[in-house]
Amino acid sequence: MSGSMPFVRRSHCCFILVRLDIHPAIEEISMASDVRVRFAPSPTGKLHIGGARTAIYNWAFARANGGTFILRIDDTDPTRSTDENTQIILRAMRWLGLDWDEGPEVGGDFGPYAQTERLDLYKQAAQQLWDEGKAYPCFCTKEQLEADRKAAQERKDPFQGYQRRCRDLDPEEARRRIEAGEPYVLRIKVPEDRGDVVIHDAVHGEVTFDAKELDDFVIFRSDGTPTYNFATVVDDAMMKITHVIRGDDHLSNTPRQVMVYEALGAPVPTFAHISMILGADGKKLSKRHGATSVEEYRDAGYLSDAFVNYLALLGWSLDGETTIIPRDVLASKFSLDRISKNPATFDPKKLDWVNAEYINGMSDAQFADEIMVPELHEAGLIEGNVEYGEDWIDALAAIVKPRTKMPADAVTVAAPIFATAETLEYDEKSVNKGLAKEGMGAILDAAKAALEGVTEWTAANIDAALEPLPEQMDLKKRVVFQAVRVAVCGNMVSPPLGETMALVGRDDCLARIDRARTMAL
Ligand code: GLU
Question: How many other C-beta atoms are found inside a 10 Å radius of the C-beta of residue 36?
């Protein structure tokens, strides 16, 4: 323990306490319907799927209730919190489209919005509890606490926590020890007669904790920093948070936090503890299951709307069946009563499906502008759509979009169209299956002759020219079209032939068939 002193207790006669604005005033109680929620990430790492879902629920709940969504940075752990992580979290929040009404960069009436900047407020609140006899200094050393725990164990005492050794210390003695420089922590005094602490959780229902089991827990450490359970409640009370929506790993902290609210004389908010997110193996989602940070999903090309939609469904449902829930619906219909108690399972395949649904739900023009053209630019396939013209781009978008599940697919699908007869890459398997076979040369010859007769190079005319070939050659339609497809596109999975060939252009199509002819038998 360090020797520094977080507090110097002054005698009541000369210490004028600055009261904090955490006691409910009449008008504040009557404003109880004015929803204020917060997302309070610790910048000890990137924003992960679980945190993102908590943020989404808070944001959606605020929006659905015309409330205020606050972003607070819980950076009290100096060894693990970094500014870089804070920036990463802010970037992820922006990418998710979760705009905050109060918090870093936007300010607000209840700031500052980073815990490290609120130290004085925690000190004042702790001082207040101390002055009111609701908190007390404890000088027990680690060794003493350990010895007490062992003794409790030996006498089979079911309670093995803090034995309240310093609870009734004579204040004069405490003052002397503090002045002599003895290190101490500040503990909250859980009222003797408190009885059960009952939490009415919006997700879990009534959860009862035995107050006797609650330690007189530490609210301020000997190094002058507040503990999580204390700082969080001071913040939530001062920021007038009405609903605390967070992961259920914090449920066990809640009775202690209720003790702090009660000691401060602040109203206890409604709690909603949301279930864990599990991987497919039923274990808590972690790195082992693949990408866990929001950034990784952004970089992999997932659409923000689709990602938010999918995460919202991990533990919440609109009506038990709707899967595609656009952001505006989420922001108007989200409710706590439809949050499930059961852990949700993260299913990357379902996320992919939702992502593909969002892509397919776009208009061709939107798909072209927001996904296809940027992807093709990045891949170096186009250097500006001016060269191609809007109609050409739209026609390309119309055939690429249904084949795009992830933005990068647009490049794979469109690449053969951007190739030339010289640069087109032929997929070996496709060549072996559809081209390098007896009789395929004759198909290409016939196709070329038919295509040479096409005067206006449109998808419909190309299809019309190729259509009669199977019958004329007494071959299966699939065989004929496959040969032409491999010849022109280099593979067997390309978009519809007529449309593709129209986009490739007449001369290059014919040149591709010439090149393919050398591979056909
Ligand atoms: N900073 C805490 C966390 O990231 C916040 C918990 C809470 O919402 O109270 O887990």
Answer: 21
